[in-house]
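Reopening: Rhodanese domain-containing protein still failing for me.
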Amino acid sequence: MADTTPQYGVLLYYKYAQITDLDSLFSFYESNCNSLSLLGRVRLSPHGVNVTVGGKLSSLEKHIAAVKSNALFEGTDFKLATCDHPVDDKVAKECGFTSLSIRIVKELVTLSSDPLLKSPEISNAGRHLTAAEFHSALQGTGPLLEKDSPTCNEDLVLLDARNLYETRIGKFHAPNVETLDPGIRQYSDLPSWIDDKSEQLKGKRVLMYCTGGIRCEMASAYIRSKGAGFENVFQLFGGIQRYLEQFPDGGFFKGKNFVFDHRISVGSSDPNVIGTCLLCGSSFDDYSSRCRCAHCRMLVLVCDSCRMEDALYVCELCQKYGKGVQSVPSLENGKTQVLSLQEEHKLVSLDTKLSPQLPWSHGKVMNLQEN
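Support: Ran it again with your exact input. Result attached.
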């Protein structure tokens, strides 16, 4: 008997454009998404839209058709992927896939938390490269990037515009190509990192990538806004998702692509795991347990053997900047649970007031004790 269960899917797309009537666009999304029973996030700003929604595949296709009928969305890259229906309510809720959230916001992505930093003009964003062009650039082959010697990668820099917890489970790696991982907690930390590394980027051909492309738009424009010596900035069109569709064996991408929906991550046919458990260092790249840092709330990788119920952990960045066991708030009863390590201290607390995430370095689990 044929399976009649409707196929489920996830749709991602964004569009930078001047929107003069946000209220009308809000009404369209509210009506269309509710009528099609789509769940997820819709963000509208005077500068464009950013959408991640899930539902029946047929409903998502109808949504795409309706959006395409608006000339505002001409040229939009609709990234539609089939997947299983969410089965983990905790993950689905945390990712915003148990309801429909439509908001009007100031910015589609917050480039910086500094109110004095003016957002760059999106029209100055780096040139889009298709997955094939991006791949050729990393190979050092083909007529590329306005260079007389396209096979020379000495001045090529590969820049990951994602957060540390994302890069911990998957990233690009190409031989003889300098790769920069900012190691940031959140996207708004990227401008200050770029400022600090400006001399390292100046005069280079900068290849940028992120999950689906939207973060590279603003970040590449920020780099190019620095003027002379920062002109040659390029971005992977459609992000890692489009690259893996073009190169299902992974190509130069190793590991899994972290995604902000119930799927958590999407991999290639390559089974190799690059992530590691923050406590024991074993190969591990599954964020479905949603373990987070007790200080900054970034996701951390904790394998099944090391994980304990209601435990909290200190991420590698917090540890790097001196936060540890002593600085974690205690519970109302004054008790805290701590994993004591001989080489370094990795905190585990009973405080359950946590949220967002990140991973870190290796350690050895010792005994559990109460203070």
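The mean pLDDT is 83. If you still see a failure, please send the error message rather than a screenshot.
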